[in-house]
Specification:
This protein is α+β, with helices and mostly antiparallel strands and 133 residues long. 20% of the residues lie in helices and 34% in strands.
Length: 133
């Protein structure tokens, strides 16, 4: 079995968060979705678990940080610069916040950062694989 990652995120509104992530291209896995949690699939090995605050608290007693703070920034690679821009605009149209950090265009790498409805930070990035040689 391939090694997988399940990123767990506390969310205020599960249905709104599902819609937000579907707009970005994540697919809902109904096998691991109920009224307290939703599994949103990015790839065969990357999944995001959206958890209501009540469900989150069954896993940890640590406080949920305010949406204005950042503990991690999750980066996902995309096929090209245009897709970075398209998903940034989709995030904004779906209620997220775009360009929370300055856009970077280094020629061989391009990225923009967004925040979802609950302030979780995502870096949408593209890198030219030929520049790595």
């Amino acid at each position: 079995m391939a090694k997988m990652i399940f990123v767990n995120l506390p969310v205020v509104s599960l249905s709104d968060s599902i819609n937000f992530y579907e707009t970005l291209g994540f697919k809902n896995n109904p096998t691991f979705t109920d009224e307290t949690a939703a599994c949103m699939v990015w790839s065969e090995t990357i999944n995001v678990m959206l958890l209501t605050h009540e469900k989150w608290r069954t896993f940890t007693q640590r406080e949920i940080p305010p949406s204005t703070s950042s503990e991690v920034m999750l980066a996902i690679s995309l096929d090209d610069k245009n897709t970075v821009d398209t998903l940034t605009e989709a995030a904004i149209q779906s209620g997220g916040t775009g360009d929370i950090n300055p856009k970077q265009d280094l020629g061989f790498m391009y990225n923009r950062s967004i925040a979802d409805l609950d302030g979780h930070v995502w870096e949408l990035m593209w890198m030219d694989p030929s520049a790595m040689a």
